[in-house]
Amino acid sequence: MDVLLQAIVNGILLGGFYALMGMGQNIIFGVMKIVNFCHGEMLMVGMYLTYMLYTYAGIDPYLALPLVAIIMFLLGAVIQHTLITPSLKTKSFTNLLFLTVGLGLLLSNGALVLFGSDYKSIRTSYSQTNIMLGPVSVALPKLISFLVLIVVTIALFTFLKYSTTGKQIRAVSQNPVGAEVCGINVRRIYLLTYGLGVALAGIAGCLLTQFYSIYPTAGASFGFRALIVVVVGGLGSIPGAFFAGILLGLLEQMSALFISPSYSDMIVFITFIVILVVRQLLIMRRK
Amino acid sequence: MLKVENLNAGYGSVNILWDVSMELNDGEVVAVLGSNGAGKTTMVRAITGMIRPTSGSIVFNGEELCKKPSRYILDAGIVQVPEGRQLFTEMTVLENLQMGAFSKETKEHFQENLEKCYKWFPKLEERAKQAAGTLSGGEQQMVAVARALIGMPKLLILDEPSLGLAPNIVDDILNVAKTLAKESNISVLLVEQDITKALAAADRGYVIENGHVALSGTADELAANEHVKKAYLGI
Ligand SMILES: Nc1ncnc2c1ncn2[C@@H]1O[C@H](COP(=O)(O)OP(=O)(O)OP(=O)(O)O)[C@@H](O)[C@H]1O
Ligand SMILES: [Mg+2]
Predict the structure, then answer these.
(1) By the 8 A CB rule, do B171 and B156 touch?
(2) Is the pLDDT of residue A1 over 80?
């Protein structure tokens, strides 16, 4: 029973990272209708950034969090301005596919050149601290990560729902022509959106350094799962991404517990495919 | 207030508008008529800067606007109700109207303009919190017109407001346009395929065929014109 509870708690905490990644991918896809295939690599960049700030400047990972978010936002904005916006004009999906996949390769290989392929980690005084929640023991960094996730989700939701810029982001995602008619600066919204999406991946990366090794391809599995979260949680929905992320984390931990940890990847993807097929059937039936 | 001269515009290397010239005075309702694919919407896009004209001149209140970006043209006071309405369907009616306030000035006057819009279209006040996509076609067209009015236009361009609407709703919307022109001194450029209704609402009109201005004149002249009668009114 305790083992099950433990797995549930771990699943929820792990799912928090998938949710963060999914939200970033979701907002990018919602606004520009492009899949950001280098989303996982952005998480990896966030990890190395945190690592550097810790090793060379002695900044605690949690204090570094806002800094990492801002730097990642700027990185995203620059990429959007110099690469993505110009190729959006070509209206070619393949261009953007190659662009984001290529960027991902560039980033992971860049990390390989700069940092080597060995696993790095950040050990702070509290990274081994555990907290007992009833019968379940939770690593303090995981708990903090989850709280950050909750705050970020609420902030993002509120921003999109109530702020003028948030409304403009929704307007562009629903009708770019209507947005231009209303004088909304669509390029600016693209810039903000991509920056925001990348910043969310960076936040996930920063938090992850506390209990996950840092290596050039560390982001790959998170990148894939972000796509699953977007598809399962519904396009453009922040709460959808939140819950889909948590569910995915739970599914993974449950299958690790009941079947085998080595099968959890496979089970995640099989479930994903089943969901896609079932949804397609439902859509066809409705027509 | 608006003087378009020898406007040429199109998409990529395809030219659609050929030396289009037209004029609009303060408080005037001018109809632009033509059949499917004549180039009416292309003309609207060229005037509002959504596409870049290849040559020509668009002078609005003494200022040259040709080749200026769409945002700049909005600021100058030319606001359009685009073809197909282009609403934000999952946002509420009120949020749609808020999006119409694009400048500092329009934001400051938002509340009073909103009340005016609700006076023109009382339905919208009832539906303020409802998602725009769940409204009827006529109500959606009202949202589109109201969203443009929030932008405090000096020149309001309506691109086929009658598309897919019941005749009495078309009358309502054209009445609002006409009243705006006469009372608030807003000029209205009314793009229409429904020629009878358009000429009834307009002071003057232009007929566009294959991207050229084929005919122009007062509404009465056009309604009486043999070519118009034969080609468009089926008489
Ligand atoms: N985005 C576009 N790219 C290329 N060609 C276009 C585009 N939009 C319109 N056209 C072409 O330009 C021509 C004029 O179209 P336009 O939309 O201006 O006609 P219209 O007079 O508004 O017709 P309707 O009454 O059907 O709205 C048409 O031949 C159309 O195929
Ligand atoms: Mg048209």
Answers:
(1) no
(2) no
